[in-house]
Structures are given as structure tokens and as C-alpha cells.
Specification:
Elements: H1 3-16, E1 31-35, E2 40-43, H2 59-73, E3 81-85, H3 91-103, E4 109-113, H4 122-129, E5 135-140, H5 151-161, E6 170-176, H6 184-193, H7 197-209, E7 213-217, H8 222-236, H9 242-256, H10 261-274
Parallel strand pairs: 1-4, 3-6, 3-7, 4-5, 5-6
Antiparallel strand pairs: 1-2
Helix pairs in contact: 2-3, 6-7, 8-9, 8-10, 9-10
């Protein structure tokens, strides 16, 4: 088999590949989901999110992300943001709530969610969005990488180091339980087996450096947890007793062995179903 035959095979395979779909009408919807095979943006008509006023105990992260998103929506320079830390403390809820709170004022501000396993197609998504007049928040929830996952290298290039770079009308927001997006033992193994340990570790953690904004989320106190429950119930106008809002909430979090915004929401759902 010579080079001519290989070219013919490559061209045939390229013709069999599904063509990317055209960009949707961004005027009708402000939230989209990125799908692959073929690459396309699907409108999301019912978005799973809560009002930003219901997010308690994360005031600093909330104000910082709102400010960064406002600058981006106004066409000013803005940073990619990594929301990392304790599970269930509202990282993904904050991203969706910030977009919802600003989309009325900035109608061309769109939210595009992509799955972690589709990060390798991020360059195709940016190519689709680059000529569009809107402003796009690209959102990836629970972003992390395992030992044999090399998508982080392509993400590094797209976010900051590529020839084209990130287009001015797109910003990347990600949430993760890991500050450097990779398991600690993965970084330590690289350090122990490499010729130059510091260079090996730096290569692994340099992805998180592409995020100019790091927002840390930490476990909440009992007072913050109870405030979350009370605010959810008040917002829904649930008729509940003081015992439900205090002792019942404490017993609920003890049975879960955890205290977080997610646990507070689950207890509120329990009360709402009962009442």
C-alpha cells in the first residue's frame, strides 16, 4: 500500500464523518448544551437552577463571579474561572444563577454547557462561536482528569496557549472538587518517576494556571446550613414549624453525615413533599 492509497482511505473516512450542524438561532434561547457526533448546539428550554439570592455562605465567590461576568458581558476583558472545593456547596448552582441574574440585562449573554468527556471537541465549539455576535459562557461541571486522560493538554492550548487562542466572545467556567483538576497521587507519581521532578509536576498543574480566577468553596457552618434551609422554605412560602427549621434540619444532616447546600436543599425537598 503506497501513499496514494493511504490518502484515498483518509479522504473516504473524512467523508464518512458526520458534518457539524449549523449554529442555532441564538435569539430564541439563552442556554445551550454542546453535543458531539455530530457536533451541534441544542437549546435548553427548561434550565435546572435556583435564584442567586438563595445561595448562602458563598458571598465572596458570588460577588467575584458576578463582577467578572459583568465585565465579560460588557465586552471588557474577563478571566476564565475555576470554582473548586467542597462538594455540594453551590459551585455549579452559582454559575447558572449568575448567568440567570445577568441575562435580563445582557440579552446576548449565553450559557453553553459541555460535558467533561467532550472537552476534546472544545476547539470545534469555539470555531462555531467565534463569528457569532453574542457573548458565551462555556460551562463544564465537575471537570477533572484521570491518569490516562490527555484531554487536559488540548484544553490548555485552547484556553491560553494556542495559535488562535480563546475568542474574545467566549469565557470558560469550570467546577471541580480538585484545585488542580487532577488527583494528588497522579501529580506525585509524575514527580517521583520523572528525570526533572519539578518540571513534571508543573506540566500537570499548569492547566489550572490557565484560569485567572480561582474561587474556593469550603464546608459551611451549622448556622449557614440552617440559614440555607430557612431561606429555601421562606422563598417557597412553606408553612413549617421552628422545630422543622432547626432540630429537624440538624437531625437530617446528621443522618447524611454531611452539612452542605445540597443537604439543605434535600431537606427542603423533604419538607415541601410533606407539607
Amino acid at each position: 500500500m503506497d501513499g496514494h492509497d493511504l490518502r484515498r482511505i483518509a479522504e473516504a473516512l473524512e467523508r464518512l464523518r458526520p458534518c457539524p450542524a449549523a449554529a442555532p438561532n441564538f435569539n430564541n434561547t439563552d442556554v445551550f448544551s454542546w453535543k458531539t457526533e455530530p457536533d451541534r448546539l441544542e437549546p435548553v428550554t427548561e434550565v435546572n437552577r435556583v435564584d442567586i439570592s438563595l445561595l448562602v455562605g458563598i458571598d465572596r465567590a458570588k460577588s467575584t463571579l458576578v463582577e467578572n461576568t459583568q465585565k465579560f458581558a460588557r465586552g471588557k476583558p474577563a478571566n476564565n474561572a475555576l470554582l473548586w472545593g467542597a462538594r455540594g456547596m453551590g459551585k455549579s448552582s452559582l454559575v447558572k444563577a449568575v448567568h440567570a441574574s445577568l441575562s435580563a440585562e445582557f440579552q446576548d449573554l449565553k450559557l453553553v454547557e459541555l460535558q467533561r468527556e467532550d472537552v476534546g471537541s472544545l476547539s470545534a465549539l469555539l470555531a462555531l462561536l467565534r463569528p457569532e455576535p453574542g457573548r458565551f459562557i462555556l460551562f463544564c461541571d465537575d471537570l477533572s482528569f484521570s491518569y490516562d486522560d490527555h484531554h487536559y493538554k488540548s484544553l490548555k492550548a485552547v484556553l491560553d496557549g494556542g495559535v488562535e487562542g480563546r475568542p474574545a466572545n467566549a469565557v470558560f467556567y469550570a467546577t471541580s472538587n480538585r484545585r488542580h483538576l487532577m488527583p494528588r497521587d497522579m501529580i506525585e507519581n509524575e514527580r517521583s518517576s520523572a528525570i526533572n521532578p519539578s518540571e513534571a509536576a508543573d506540566e500537570k498543574i499548569s492547566l489550572s494556571d490557565r484560569f485567572g480566577l480561582w474561587l474556593g468553596f469550603h464546608p459551611c457552618s451549622q448556622a449557614e446550613y440552617l440559614e440555607m434551609v430557612e431561606r429555601y422554605c421562606s422563598h417557597a412560602r412553606l408553612d413549617v414549624t421552628r422545630w422543622d427549621l432547626e432540630q429537624g434540619a440538624i437531625e437530617w444532616q446528621q443522618t447524611r453525615g454531611a452539612r452542605s447546600g445540597r443537604v439543605a436543599w434535600q431537606y427542603y425537598v423533604h419538607l415541601a413533599g410533606r407539607n
